Structures are given as C-alpha cells and as structure tokens.
Amino acid sequence: MSSQGCVYTWCGCREPGNGRRRMGSRCPLRGDEGHGSWYLSLELPAAPDGRRRRIRRGGFPSRDSAETALARLRMPSPGNPDSPPLTVGQWLERWLVSRTAPRSSTLRGYAAHVRLYLAPCLGQILLADLSPAHVQAMFTAIARQHEAMSRPVTAATLVRVKATLRTALNAAIRAGHITTNAASRAELPTARRPKAVVWTAERVTEWQRTGIRPSVAVWTLAQTAEFLNVIRGHRLYAAYHLIALRGLRRGEACGLRWCDIDLDSGTAIICWQLQQYDGHVVLCPPKTAHSERIIALDRTTVAALRAHRARQLAERAAAGEDYLDSGYVFTRPNGDPMAPDWLSRYFRQLNDASGLPPIRLHDLRHGAASLALAAGADLKVVQDMLGHSSIVLTADTYPNPRELHQAGEVCPV
Q1: Average pLDDT of the residues in 129-133
Q2: CATH number of 197-406: 3.50.30.40, 1.25.40.10, 1.10.10.10, 1.10.443.10?
Q3: Which of 168, 179, 311, 315 has the least C-beta neighbours within 10 A?
Q4: pLDDT digits over 135-159, tens only?
Q5: pLDDT at residue 410 above 50?
Q6: In the structure, what pLDDT confidence band is assigned to residue 6 with cuts at 50, 70 and 90?
Q7: Residue range 167-209, pLDDT digits in tens
Q8: What are the residue ranges of CATH 1.10.150.130 in the chain?
Q9: Where are the domain boundaries for CATH 1.10.443.10 in the chain?
Q10: Residue 263, SS3?
Q11: Rounded distance between C-alpha atoms, residue 158 and residue 192, angstroms
C-alpha cells in the first residue's frame, strides 16, 4: 500500500453454497454503483515502540467521498506533500514552540492546558480527523476525572481550555492543515463571574456559625479601617494601604518602582508588574493595555509611602553592602524584589491575626472599587482606577453600593 493510502470497495456478499465465507474482491458486482461500500486505508509512521499503525475507515457511499476523506486525513504539511499526517498532539507541540505572546504567563497557561488536558485526551487523534464530538467527549472526561478526585472543575477552567484549543486550531487553519475549527462548536456551561458581596454583620455571624464563606467578599469601610490600623506597624503596611484604597493588583504593587511615583504631585504610574515562575521573579507589562494607567494618591497614601521610604532607607543603611538597591517600592528586607506570592502569604497571616472575616488579597482590590462606588465615584472613574478594559467588567464584578450603605457605612474614599 502506498504511503499516501488507498480506497477500495467491500461488500457483504458470500460464496454460493458456503454462506459463511465472504467473496470479497472476487464478487462480480464489486465496484458497481450502489453495491457495497467504499473504504479507505492509510499507513501511519511506526509508533515509538515500533508497532505498525494503520487507519481504516468505511461506509462511504462513493469512491469520491472515500477519496475526499482520505485526502483530509493525509493533510500534508504545506510544501511537503510526502509528509505523514499530523496528530493533534504533534500539532499542539509545534504550535507551542512557535507561539509568541505578550506575556509569559499566557504561554504558561497554554502549556499547562496542553499538558494536563489536550494532549492526554486528543493527542493521538489525527488533526484532520478531529471532530466536535471528540472535543465534547474531552470536556466530559475532564469533568468526570475532577469529580472522581472530589475536586469539581469550574466552568471558567473549561472555558479557558476551550479557548486554548480554539486558538491552536485557528493556527492550524492558517497553516493550511485543516479547514474548520472543531473547538468552536463545543458546548460548555456558562462561566459566571462571581459577584463580590459585603461582609455584613449577618454574613459574619453565619460564617462564624457554619464556617461557610462567600467565594468573593469585601470588607466594609469600618473593617478595612480596622485592618489597616491593626497592621500599621508592619513593614508592608503601605503596600496593603495602596491596594485597599487604590485597587492595585498584587503584581502591580510588587512591580511599582520609586521612579514611577511622584509624591509631591501625588501620582503613580502603573506600567509594570512582577510575576513569579519556577521560583524566578520576572518583570513584565501589566495585564492589559488598559492596565497601564496613572493613579491619584490621596494625602494618607502619600504619607504612608513617605514613611515606607524612610523605613526602607533605614533597612538599606543597616544592611550596608549586602543590600540590593533594586529600585522597587516594596522589597524584601535585603532589597530583593517582592514576589507576589509573598505579598499574599503575609496578607493571609495578617488577616488571620486581625480577627476579621477572611478575604483574599485580590478582594482587597475589589474592596477599593466597592468603597469608591459607594462614595459616589463615577463608574468610568473606577474603571480607570482599576485598569479594567471594559466598563461592563467593572459593573458586573462589584457589589451594589447600597450594600455598604445598608451596613451603616459612610464612604468618603
């Protein structure tokens, strides 16, 4: 058989007088229109262990339909008609190697999806043979696997996996390997963005009674003020103050440099963020183009930053030549850049010690937006402060300002 494969007919006719033996190629009606079915056969490169691999498909009503299917399965690489057909796994590997993206975190997300889900579930399927049914079956398998581990997969995770596969298959279409995107027609449950709720007295009582907490919750103004008062002597007080009142992301706070701040005019430019990967801290652009912004600093925030600068200079003088003058606002005691994970870790410890209801560090950013909205700030102003790309995202994420007022808050943010 040619490496390019072949098509042939086959029928179920049996020899006269011996009903158990098929006639096969000796059937006199073989090839006649409407008699039997057309089949294809395609030889694949040997498996890594040397085993022979062959694809057979049948049931085609005509020679033309069988040859069309065979051509689709072969799908040679552009400019190389003798190349063997690609599997989904081989294409994903090529795609990852050639992929470029603005941020390394995006590439890491693609690679994780390929490693954990796409390659194990779809890797052995021929790229040209991939169908929406294959993709749908993959998502069903992922959900069942997570259920078996008692760790249900979220709709948001499935949506991100689908987006990675769709992006990879779009690249395959541009390269001429396939003509349709099988991932586009897969159906998934709607991924709903969790709405932040306020830690009202009733919710605090219920949490203390049951231990059940909202997935996304923000403190009231009084709770935020209490937290900042409790941690006022901590060396990273200014970082949490900045996040709580100006809504920085943790990576943006860690990536803030003294050259980006003008304490006299009360402004800060958010133009970098720090991310951590494989134990290394990497400086990279903010999350989106809209995340690059100028924020106004109120008098209390300027005072907190001035006090932080004085503390940092004292640490530098105490360390002497061992101090690394990295230029960042928030650093380790020896001047090394502060990894975002450390900022979150310290926050959890401080939250536990404060006795306040639990929130995530990112919820402190949510709280800044909620307090600003409750104080009467325009939604567009809050969007710009947070660096959101869409005002819809701002409106859909944060609690109704009435909740803070109902909690007895007056919010002069």
Answers
A1: 91
A2: 1.10.443.10
A3: 179
A4: 999 999 999 999 988 888 888 899 9
A5: no
A6: confident
A7: 999 999 988 888 899 999 888 887 677 777 889 999 999 999 9
A8: 88-185
A9: 197-406
A10: coil
A11: 12
Nearest to 158 by CA among 143, 173, 168, 172: 143
Structure tokens at 72: 């689709």
Contact 407, 201 (CB under 8 A): yes
Q: Residue 284, SS3?
A: strand
Report the C-alpha gap between 369 and 70 in whole angstroms: 57
Q: Are 33 and 112 in contact (CB under 8 A)?
A: no
Apex 56 CA angle, 167 and 25, nearest 5:
155
**Domain boundaries 88-185, corresponding CATH code:** 1.10.150.130
State how far the Cα of 368 lies from the Cα of 357, in Å rounded to an integer. 17
**% helix / strand / coil in the chain, to the nearest 5?**
50, 15, 35
Average pLDDT for the chain: 83
The partner residues of 340 in beta bridges, in order of sequence, read: none
- Check pLDDT > 90 for residue 79: no
Q: Say what the pLDDT of residue 43 is.
A: 73
